[in-house]
Write a structure and sequence with these properties.
Rossmann fold; 2 domains; seven-stranded mixed beta sheet; alpha/beta; 15 strands
Length: 403
């Protein structure tokens, strides 16, 4: 399988020059180890805590472990021996050198608790998401900006609706994207089994694995929808507090992304329910049993999957650069809803997401933002339009290819 350049690479290299420890987490199989091995200097050794012999050594004699491997060192799946962080802290404090340790792993729910306690201020943390379209097409861009003057300068990467849904159906996990011989269904089946049986079954919060499988499938089927714990509880058959814990596990595993409703002191009429998005649309399509890209494109979930895909692509552009994406959505008690708000300083950019080429004008709700007392910028309808085109001075069609 060939290597595909990741947008995060430069951020990792720069962080290694200014922090003693660099940690890359994220959903399993997103290519964390492959990327870090590709970036590693010739004198950086590699070790994985998936190796039982290595785990035994580091648990029984951490000092001997570091005498054996030294540093610079890349430790893969380090969360399997969380006690190693105390030894790393000791070494970092003694040596005070940058780039000493690279850490990677997929269990962020375990990793971050221990990292925040042991390595606060000493570690740069990154989340590697599935491949973006810009990475797949080797057209790496900076984070998406909804500012019209910047959009006008960008080149549109045109795709048909069918081509977009092929990408949605396949998802962004490198093994699927880069290897045409991989059986998609077998791959995702193994992925789910490994995720639940290895990463999840050891957690005290997850005692009912079959119910957890049902829960993950429910979340995939309801991507781009509001997150209502009581409703999920009734379907899955576990308590609402348990559902909240499970949602947190999926979020910290890099499986889902949660967008909060926009809040302002100017109004109390906003709903407080967040929205949830699956970060890999291919995995979501597999879990919800869509057999082909065409059936998904023509099915009743097509709009939700397209919205999920767009939000994911925007998010990847920020996350891969180590930046925070200030993404929200709007909905009030009068059922006025806007798919996405991008907030920059005191400005709000409203965005609607539609899978058509020339969708009907969807700016009827943008005016509700005026009561927030902030600067409302021209809004966008992200769709499959051929070009950036104004409907009026306050709203423009924005081609998907400009993200």
């Amino acid at each position: 399988m060939s290597y595909l350049k990741r947008q995060m690479e430069e951020s990792i290299i720069n962080a290694s020059k200014t922090f003693p420890v660099v940690m890359v987490c994220g959903q399993s199989q997103t290519g964390k180890s492959t990327m870090l091995k590709h970036l590693a200097e010739s004198d950086r050794k590699y070790v994985s805590f998936d190796d039982a012999k290595v785990r035994t050594l580091v648990k029984n004699d951490p000092e001997l472990f570091f005498e054996t491997y030294g540093y610079k060192l890349f430790i893969d799946e380090f969360q399997r021996v969380p006690s190693i962080l105390l030894e790393i802290k000791k070494i970092v404090d003694e040596r005070n050198e940058n780039g000493m340790f690279w850490l990677s792993g997929s269990q962020k729910f375990v990793m971050m608790k221990n990292v925040s306690e042991s390595l606060a201020g000493r570690v740069a943390v990154f989340d590697l998401l599935p491949l973006s379209y810009n990475e797949i097409s080797s057209d790496i861009k900076g984070p998406f900006s909804p500012e019209l003057e910047l959009l006008k300068k960008k080149q549109n990467s045109k795709r048909t609706l069918k081509e977009v849904f092929e990408d949605i159906f396949n998802g962004g996990l490198p093994k699927i994207v880069l290897n045409a011989d991989v059986d998609r269904d077998i791959y995702y089946s193994s992925y789910i089994n490994t995720y639940i049986e290895r990463d999840i079954s050891s957690l005290e919060q997850v005692g009912k694995l079959e119910e957890f499988r049902t829960f993950v499938t429910y979340m995939a089927a309801n991507t781009a929808q509001e997150l209502k714990y009581d409703s999920i509880s009734k379907v899955v058959g576990v308590s609402a507090p348990t559902i909240k814990e499970w949602v947190s596990i999926l979020e910290r595993s890099g499986i889902i992304y949660i967008i909060s409703p926009y809040a302002s002191n100017m109004t109390k009429r906003l709903v407080k329910t967040p929205k949830c998005y699956f970060l890999d649309t291919g995995l979501a399509a597999y879990l919800t049993s869509w057999p082909t890209a065409e059936t998904l494109m023509n099915g009743n979930s097509a709009g939700a999957f397209f919205e999920t895909y767009v939000v994911g692509e925007i998010l990847k552009g920020f996350t891969n650069m180590g930046k925070k994406a200030n993404l929200y959505y709007y909905r009030d008690i009068d059922q006025k809803e806007i798919d996405l708000l991008m907030v920059e300083s005191d400005s709000i950019y409203p965005i609607e997401i539609k899978k058509g080429k020339n969708p009907s004008i969807s700016d009827k709700n943008f005016a509700v933002l005026n009561k927030l007392g902030q600067q409302i910028k021209p809004g966008l309808i992200i769709c499959l339009a051929d070009e950036l085109f104004p409907i009026n001075k306050d709203i423009w069609y924005c081609p998907l290819g400009l993200i």
